[in-house]
Amino acid sequence: MLEKLSHILFSTRLLLPELVFAGVFLLIVTIVAFSKKSHQRYNLYNTLTLSILITIGFVFYVFLSFLEQYFDSGVVLFHNLIYLDKLSIFFKIIITVSAIAVILHLWIIGYKVVGEFYAIFLALILGLFILSMTTHMLMLYVAIEMVSICSYILVVINKSKSNAEAGIKYLLTGATSSAVMLYGISLLYGMTGTLNFGSQEFATFLGQNPSWVANVAAFMTIGGLLFKLSAAPFHSWTPDVYEATPTPIVAFLSIAPKVGVIIVMIRFLSGLSIDFRLILSIVIIGSLLIGNLSALWQTNTKRMLGYSTIAHAGFMLVGLLALNEFGVQSAIFYVATYMFITLSAFLLVDLLALKTESYELASLKGLGQENILLGLSAVVIMIALVGFPPTVGFTGKLLIFTALWQSYQDSGNMLLLVVLIISLLNTAISVFYYLRIPFFMIFKDPMGSAKRYGLDLMKKLFLFVFIFLLVYLFIKPDLIMDMIEKL
Amino acid sequence: MNNILLSTLIFLPIIAAALVLLLPNAYKDSFKWISILVSIINLLNIFTLYNTFDRKLTSFQFLEQYEWIRMGLGSLGILSIDYILGVDGINMPMVLLSGIIFLVGAVASFNIEHRPKAYHSLYLLLSGTVIGCFVALDFFLFFIFFEFMLLPMYFLIGIWGGERREYSAIKFFIYTFVGSIFILIVMIGLAMSVNDTFFSQELSTTVHTFDFRFLGDFKNYISGSLLSPDSNQLIFGLSARVFAFILLLIGFGIKLPTVPLHTWLPDAHVEAPTPVSVILAGILLKIGAYGFIRIAYGFFPDIAYNCSYIVAGAGVLSIIYGAFNALAQDDLKKMIAYSSVSHMGFVLLGLSSLTAEGVNGAIYQMFGHGILSALLFLIAGVIYDRTHNRLIENFRGLSSKMPLYTVAVTIAFFGALGLPSLPGFVGEFFTLMGGFASPVLPDWVPMLATLGLVLSAGYFLWTLQKMFFGKFWTNHNHEHHMKDLDIREMVMLYGLSALAVIFGIFPNLIFDLSGETVKLFLEKF
User: Fold this and answer.
1) Which residues form the NADH:quinone oxidoreductase/Mrp antiporter transmembrane domain (chain A) (predicted)?
2) How many H helices and E strands in chain A?
């Protein structure tokens, strides 16, 4: 009894940052509840959220080296429910960084959102933190639900008709995939007798089942994850939600949950003792083709980016398909750098919309001529999404393809080569629609009078930081890669 | 000074590009002068390079090497990417050519009125990346430059082009991008198969490298890896190395371009503004040929020896198909574009012969065609500037109104159709000789290629006769536009003509550069 209690106390101590974080969530809820016009206090909320995020990011960073000193690999907390290691802290840092960027985005562009938003936002991040440090399927389910429910609310929090439609779609697909996931978990539990997918007995017992049964159960289990990743066949919510939701929220939803999901995928797939590559390949190829081919026909930039994230979900999984040490590292690198790319893409779309008040591609005509900085940024960001040098998008793609090639060279599995070729060709397809944004901005002449369209200093600076990162991380990818290697 | 000379060639234009971008629009008249000045400085530097280049050495000279990226690959060792520049007999002529053509292009860009700031910064950016592509000795670095040059080119065609500029810009981009993806696959495969034997002992782990000097040597291949010469893995029924070689053929074949991958070229040329056409035909096509020599043949000599007939076949097909197409064109610029396709075919023929005269001839042909095609596109530009019309049938007897122009045209046309003492002849003669002497090609291949000579004489002489001789007449009342060359045009046209004559009479200016390196190159086969 005493032993158990001391274990719980010990566990609680290691989760102190998250507990403080939860405290701030409660604080914001209280402020919202007791202040009358909550939407007028957005400066307060912004400051509060930003400071807690920066603090916790810093704490995690310190924690990373602390953990290195005291624990060799990871540490099991709360009787297997939480598994804390350097990988999870690294992912928590990524999530925090993206959250900071999103709050800055909100603030700098001048979105006025209700106070509840900040509370839900923090709760979502908390869910992601839990997601990134679990190898227990029960905890996984709880975390996924926490993230999902917060996401549904974030999508509809700015009340409008299209929001409601997107929210309902999101909710229905989400609920379905959760149900599928729960069913998968119950199957896996039945086969292995354990809920901890990081454990040895999970691997042993799963291997004793017929391969296709285990494959189906595993696929159902990752259904919920694929939904968050907006990978095929759970992708259908993406474009509608992206179109209807305020841009900073979309930016957040398009990266943070994926980061959380990727780490779970890494852990789940490396604990899987069956050959799961066929199903994973189908998911990858499906996501790539659906994402890229549909994006070709879009006339709305946010919808287009929605389809593009479906394709990118496929690329993220390519690194996991290789499933060796380097494959995992390259997938992490891809996710970390894709975060910067996608955040900057949404920032760009928003900066453009400030002028045009529309997200239609046609409304971008000539904007690049009026503001050269925006035109150049659009080129850099879009070629980063394509994966074109000299941006970090190229490095990320190069690494995952190298990992896949190496995996093919070692195993001789034809499937990997097919995936490699299809994903490379998809890069070529994607050129076509990504370049349409700079194409409209630079090649087309402006509609009406060509007025100069200026940005204020903060916006310029914020955009510049992103552009700088995209190029600088190409020149010095070691900055991130060294960190990943040590995990 | 010597040890940063090559970096200067690359970064001076890139820095100048940034400068142009940052200068306020009030200085817009100075942008063209910046372009010209930078091109002149670059050309002077290249002359220094040319003069101090040691013709006897076979190794790389003016070597610059810096560590760039060292990335751990987990259990696979280390991925090492370096910044390595250097020149040898194969790329030295190309660097010289770039210097010349970019200066000519800068002069030709003089009358760009539409958004000069963007134009000149893109132009300078392009010139830096193209030279970078030629002198890079690390596959990764080469690839970066190779890919990156698409962007300035895309905008140069897409903004300053003719009526269907947007269509041809995106077509150009996608074709070349697809090609570069094929090259990327091979690049990854090579890096994963090659070990930097020098560093791997020091670090006691496998060091995957992109260094050209290691990729070219079988000793460095990790045994059992996919692209090592002893590998026996099959991909779609082909050995992995054959597969990689074919991917490279497609990738560089699009850039070159070779029939049937050439269809982007006529569109791009017709829509591009004159200076961009000059750059495109003068240098960019040569990068495809350079890739063939350096990468496809240099790193896969065993496969190249057996598959040379494919390359020769593509070459001969380009020569004949390009020539027939040129014969059928009524647009002057389109005719010249197809003649480019035809003449670049000789490069493939010479290379695939695997003889000293053939490969030297191929390198010479690259250089000579660079000069001549630049001249030809300038000629088309002169007519277009005056009348906004390029149809051959619209003009007759121009020699009486424009004698100076006609002289330049005659030199260019005769040079291109292969009159002795002009570059076209030297290149074609040596590549054909190589073809006949080749151990790997049957005699009928070069024989077919000679048909290209006859055809090119046909379309050039025909055009010359139709447009320039006879009684003066133009369609659509263009008569009063038909002024003779101004000073700027004379400098460009006669300058290039003089170079054509010099290099045609003294082909050793190029052969001296390439001879020793080619000798070493051929020992691999």
Assistant:
1) 135-416
2) 22, 2
- Within-domain flag for A4: no
Q: Is residue A444 part of a domain?
A: yes
- Give the H/E segment covering residue A187: helix A161-192
Which residue, among B117, B188, B232, would best test binding to A if mutated, counting the most A CBs under 10 Å from its CB? B188
Query: What's the whole-model pTM score?
Result: 0.92
The sign one gets for the Cα dihedral B126, B212, B350, B411 is positive
β pairing state of B238-239 and B234-235 = antiparallel
pLDDT tens for B338-385 read 999 999 999 999 999 999 999 999 999 999 999 999 999 999 999 888
Residue A443 included in any domain: yes
A73 assigned to some structural domain: no
In sequence order, which ranges of B272-402 are alpha helices (DSSP H)?
Answer: 274-279, 285-291, 298-299, 301-328, 332-353, 356-387, 398-401
Contact across the interface for B177 and A409, Cβ inside 8 Å: no
Q: Predicted ipTM?
A: 0.89
Residue of B138, B264, B280, B159 lying closest to B210 (CA atoms): B138
For chain A, give percent helix, strand, coil, nearest 5.
Answer: 80, 0, 20
Whole-number Å distance between alpha carbons of B397 and B384: 17
Encoded tokens for A309: 């994230």
| Min Cα–Cα distance to chain A from B8, Å | 19
> Which residue in A has a C-alpha nearest to residue B129's C-alpha?
A390
Instruction: Give the C-alpha separation, A248 to A253, whole Å.
Output: 9
CA distances from A424 to A193, A337, A390, A398, B261 (A): 41, 19, 18, 10, 19
Instruction: Provide the residue ranges of all domains of chain B, joining segments of one domain with +.
Output: 2-522
Domain tally for chain A? 1
Domain membership of residue A396 as a residue range: 285-487
Residue written as token pair 């990011």:
A57
**Would you say B519 and B58 are in contact if contact means Cβ atoms under 8 Å apart?**
yes
Rounded CA Rg of chain B? 23
